[in-house]
Amino acid sequence: MLNRAHAVVVLPAVLGGRIADAGIRRWLSKAELRVDNTRVEPLARVLSVLGQPPVTSGLAALRLWGQTGHRPVGWQCGADPVYLEARLDRLYLHALQDVSAAQTEGVFHYLQTTLATGRPYAFHRVDSSGYLQREDAMATMPIRASTAHGHSPDDFLLEGPPPALHDALQSELQMCLHECDVNQERAKAGHYPVNSLWFWGGGVTSPLQAQRLPALFCDDPLLTGYWLRSDQTPHRWPGSLAACVMGADSFVAVTPCDANAADAESCLDELRMHLARRRIARLTMLFRDGLHADMRRRHRLRVWRRSAPQLSPGGI
Predict the structure, then answer these.
(1) What is the pLDDT of residue 282?
(2) How far apart are alpha carbons 47 and 34 in whole angstroms?
(3) Do 204 and 58 meet the contact criterion of CB atoms below 8 Å apart?
(4) In what order do the strands lie in the sheet with 32-35?
(5) What whole-number distance in Å separates Cα of residue 41 and Cα of residue 143?
(6) Across-strand partners of 6?
(7) Helix H or strand E segment including 124
(8) Mean pLDDT (the chain, rounded)
(9) What is the pLDDT of residue 2?
(10) Across 150-261, where does the E strand assignment appear?
């Protein structure tokens, strides 16, 4: 469990010279820094900081719980609409963030009526998020499409039963999606078609497991679902870190997933001020490109640390 006034904040990517402000770069360089290039969900990184065990199955069901506020029944996996781009060497994944709720409804209605009728599974969606519910388990990827974006599916290992069911379903639905009206609509608008679904996080979520956690401020339904399963009340992202600091002693805050480097600079400048004014005793910053930074107020005395190589252009 966290100590009093410990803030854990998930922030946009900053590696490789994305921070233009030299003062903020010098301040961040005084933290304990490390880089983890492993592709994992922000939830896994947050739980590690909190000293909680990782969630090993049922991640998609947790996301569904976070979206609906109710514990899902039965085996679920995420089914994220994606575009698989064939290049010379292998396939590459594009997580499609521009698929509207109406387009997701069209894709899933089409697959349900053409592919799933009479089968032991069903497609359904909540807003723009897709799901597959099955009577029996199926191998799935370990992370969401948005977390795996830009990588090859070959970079990730399927988890669960043997991959035969997963591979067979992928082959069938990719053939079906060629004829989907939504893809004709997207092609006319100059957008990538939905030529596959990314099946991930399969499993059944456990019942309520009451435990004490710091306050949560975020719009990520996966973290929200974990807090609900822990019998805690999550809060929506309030729009600023100041509201998080005023709302709780210790907290976890997740900035919006579409935040950019300029937003990161603004957040870092604000966190620097809160730490200097003793509103935060310990600060853990988890950046979306794998940078992990731990900082306490006393770290300001590290005047010899001018600029960490990870934060400079070309740094890793």
Answers:
(1) 93
(2) 17
(3) yes
(4) 32-35, 291-296, 282-287, 6-11, 251-254, 215-217
(5) 6
(6) 282
(7) strand 121-126
(8) 91
(9) 45
(10) 196-203, 215-217, 251-254
CA distance 282 to 138: 42
Residue 213's nearest CA partner among 225, 197, 203, 195 is 225
Q: Give the sign of the dihedral formed by CA 137, CA 149, CA 8, CA 38.
A: positive
Report phi then psi at 144, rounded to 5: -65, 160
CA dihedral (8, 12, 13, 17) in degrees, to 10, reads -100
**How distant, in Å, are the alpha carbons of 150, 293, 315 from that of 16?**
17, 15, 5
Angle in degrees, CA 240, 282, 221, rounded to 5: 45
Model confidence at 1, in pLDDT bands (50, 70, 90)? Answer: very low
Q: What is the pLDDT of residues 170-219, one digit of tens each?
A: 999 999 998 899 999 999 999 999 999 999 999 999 888 999 999 999 99
Looking up tokens 């799933």, which residue turns up?
116
Mean pLDDT of 143-155: 93
pLDDT for residue 299 is more than 90: no
For 72, the token pair is 């899902």
Query: Would you call 47 helix, strand, or coil by DSSP?
Result: helix
pLDDT of amino acid 314: 61
Contact residues for 250 (Cβ-Cβ < 8 A; gap 6+): 2, 3, 4, 5, 6, 7, 214, 215
